Amino acid sequence: MIQLENLHKSYGKGGGHLHVLKGIDLHICKGEFTSIMGVSGSGKSTLLNILGLLDDYDRGNYFLEEKLIKNLTQVESAMIRNKKIGFVFQFFNLIEYKNALDNVALPLLYSGVHHRKSHMIAMEYLEKFGLQDWAKHYPNELSGGQKQRIAIARAMVTNPSLILADEPTGAIDSMTSNQVIRILEEINKEGVTVLIVTHEKDIAKRTHRIIKIKDGIIRS
Length: 220
Ligand code: ADP
Ligand code: MG
Fold this sequence. Notes:
Rossmann fold, about 220 residues, alpha/beta
């Protein structure tokens, strides 16, 4: 599913040069449920953003389902992202002026699905995650856990083969965290490859493999 070979990434070419990823080798198979752990600043988000085609890298190779992800145009990477990848963020990144249903439907609209059909599919996903009663509510009327479940529904609505989640429980209490992890477990059981970044041991333990990153290198 994911193959990284000697991947390097730096920020701030020239003046303040910061070498964040210093040769990452990583192989993740289809259907795995994996977590990446590491202290703050160790490059976890940088790595996940590269995997999610939200950022590019300097050196090495990234293969996603055998396709080399390199020198893609913005349109090409947006197309691959829309087709294969769902991204879940620590602070949900929901659109405040759209209700839950419209937030979930948005990726479908981007991929050209008709408005009415996109709402039908989005509603199915809200139902699936027990959120149907919240469809017409706006993000500021929802709890952190509800917002994250809506964000997961949005990530899933295009039926991706890979879910990437950056600290998905980082901004919610531990009881709700448990719900969010359970949803990710469920999604993985349906065959979706799930990769989460976390610095919480209890969360990482719920996954099937823990990858530790330190000083820009994978340690175990
Ligand atoms: P983590 O998610 O593990 O906390 P990050 O990948 O966010 O770590 O950041 C790794 C390092 O790169 C940090 O020192 C951070 O300040 C720096 N960094 C992250 N994003 C940028 C950016 N866009 N520009 C410059 N430096 C960045
Ligand atoms: Mg981070």
